[in-house]
Amino acid sequence: MRTITCMLVAVAALMAGCPQAAHGQVRAKAAVTCVSAGQVLEYDCTIRLANARSGEPLSGLTVSVGADMPSMPGMHNVRPVKATEQTEKGVYHVRLELEMHGDWAVQIDLRGAVRDRVIAMLRFEGAEVIDVKPSSSQHRH
Ligand SMILES: [Cu+2]
After folding, report:
1. How far is the CA of 55 from the centre of ligand 1 (A)?
2. Which of the ends of the chain has fewer CB neighbours closer than 10 A, N or C?
3. Could you give all domains of the chain from N- to C-terminal order, each with its CATH number?
């Protein structure tokens, strides 16, 4: 079983309309590692959330995780699942049930002291999960 960690910086929707960004708005980064949970299309994912600037773990947040397939817009409806923080601060666990193998945009929504959304691009193929570079095409034709 192979796992590769995918490190991505937050998609900072809030910053889009606020170029100065001098308000001390905390942005999150997430390291997502998924492994097969045994059942087909079920994956156990570990998400390490940290302050993108300081690297400090982001603890005590309400974290929900959904998934969508960028190559198949509107075709999937994976309902967001609440992630559970582990004893290690800033480390959250969630089980994802996907609808097919392929490239998924895993959407991590943070609420509480930090509000942000982080997107991790991951390729789920059987027991294997590999990261997909943010700059790479989401299509595989
Ligand atoms: Cu699909």
Report:
1. 34
2. C
3. 6-12+28-129 (2.60.40.10)
